[in-house]
Amino acid sequence: MTQPATESTGFDTDPQTVGLYETIHKRRDVRAQFTGGPIDPDVLDRILKAAHAAPSVGLSQPWDFIVVRDLEIKESFYAHVQEERKAFSDSLSKPDAERFAGIKIDGVLDATLSIVVTYDPTRGSPNVLGRYSIADAGLYSVCLAIENLWLATTVEGMGMGWVSFYREQFLSKLLQIPETIRPVAWLCIGPVTHLETVPDLERHGWRERTPLNDVLHYETWGNRALHEKG
Amino acid sequence: MTQPATESTGFDTDPQTVGLYETIHKRRDVRAQFTGGPIDPDVLDRILKAAHAAPSVGLSQPWDFIVVRDLEIKESFYAHVQEERKAFSDSLSKPDAERFAGIKIDGVLDATLSIVVTYDPTRGSPNVLGRYSIADAGLYSVCLAIENLWLATTVEGMGMGWVSFYREQFLSKLLQIPETIRPVAWLCIGPVTHLETVPDLERHGWRERTPLNDVLHYETWGNRALHEKG
Questions:
Q1: Do the chains contact at A59 and B202, CB–CB below 8 Å?
Q2: pLDDT tens digits, one per residue of B157-205
Q3: Has residue A64 been placed in a domain?
């Protein structure tokens, strides 16, 4: 992508554009940096509205948000996460398990609050426009809302961490989520001391980020021609 | 959420914060407003890098991006989308089918280019940290990248539309995507005449957006107490 620009993009001067990219690139999946400090109710309202403004298949808005502050609920969830952590650790080779032992995987007890995001496949049914051919399209919409929430949290100077060491059934029971609704994410949210500049897993030598060019194709899968020329 | 703010949030003055929220709220799922005008290669590079900077489970970055400009490919896909559109239409009641007839569902032939986003479940395997308990977590990551791409496209003054009237198998064959890779989205991208202020489906009376409070719960499912008090 080294071709010269054919027109001015305004990138260097427009603060909105610069701001969006800076927010996208500084966003981190936070585990260890939560302070537990207060969240302004207006801020909580803004980040939730940002999530709720996400695109959704057939305008179905199939998400719900459960704001969790209750310590007893958090402690139950935390205990379950530790069990799942152990199960994963037991599945690893010895060197991997040793590396994994040093990695913090959640901030459930440290973050100010958590937001559990769920998917309701019945919303807008039976005729969800655009979900006729692809059943998972509703689930995809929920994830778009989660990314909005993540970026809004980041731009507000807070951190967010997605915990995925849990069984959906456990979480449903804990929060009395009906059987027809699927929990998609437990998100820890709150003020942080700082955001790391390098993702935790890269800092711990678990895995490195790949360059964009490794995942770029042109016209059909595996065709790297334009990149190689460019 | 009408409690008074307990501290200044800087929301009114910080251009990055204002910019992110404005971008999130003005983003639309574009069908009819594409001009077909050129996309600066630097802009394309920036929006793809924004997508590639998304969070991913276990830092697996399980997405690929196929940039499609080829007219023959677009025409084949467009013809397939029309078939799927007809199948959906045939499944509707007569009044719904009549309303649906007036709704444009894709900009495949009008948009400057398309980006097909795929999911590779083998990336980072066998030990994707955080995908042990939830198999779909990798698929979720791909959607986070798509929302980054959507917001970047929007802040660059362009439009994006997610087409979901297709069969995954058809798209895989068309773009020679390997069997182990799952296509997740066909995204139309390019300059637009304008972004509508109200989503297409709402303007056409298909469905209305709900207020945030309809999807908010506190501590456990169905508990609206804090909202009702607030």
A1: yes
A2: 999 999 999 999 999 999 999 999 999 999 999 999 999 999 999 998 8
A3: yes
Distance from CA of A196 to the nearest CA of B (A): 14
> How many domains would you assign to chain B?
1
**Which residue would you say has higher pLDDT here, A12 or A162?**
A162
What one-character DSSP code corresponds to residue B34? B
| Furthest C-alpha separation in chain A | 58
SS3 B9: coil
Q: Is residue B12 part of a domain?
A: no
CATH number of the domain enclosing A188 = 3.40.109.10
Backbone angles phi, psi at A196, to 5 degrees: -65, 150
Residues B178, A133: C-beta atoms closer than 8 Å: no
Contact with chain B for residue A52, Cβ under 8 A? yes
Q: Do B20 and A15 touch (CB under 8 A)?
A: no
CA distance B158 to B147: 14
**Is residue A61 a part of any domain in this protein?**
yes
Environment class of residue B17 by beta-carbon count within 10 Å: exposed (0-12), middle (13-18) or buried (19+)?
buried
User: Scanning every residue of chain A, which has its alpha carbon at the shortest distance from the alpha carbon of B20?
Assistant: A20
Q: CB neighbours of B188 closer than 8 A, spacing ≥ 6?
A: B30, B34, B106, B107, B108, B110, B111, B114, B160, B161, B163
How high is the ipTM of this complex? 0.92
Domain that holds residue A49: 31-194
pTM of the complete model beyond 0.90 = yes
Q: Which residues contact A121 (CB under 8 A, 6 or more apart)?
A: A62, A138, A180, A182
In a domain, B22, yes or no: no
Q: Using CB atoms and an 8 Å cut-off, which of residues 154-213 of chain A contact chain B? A: 155-156, 162, 164-168, 175-178, 181, 184-185, 199, 201-202, 206-210, 212
Q: Count CB pairs under 8 A between chains A and B.
A: 325
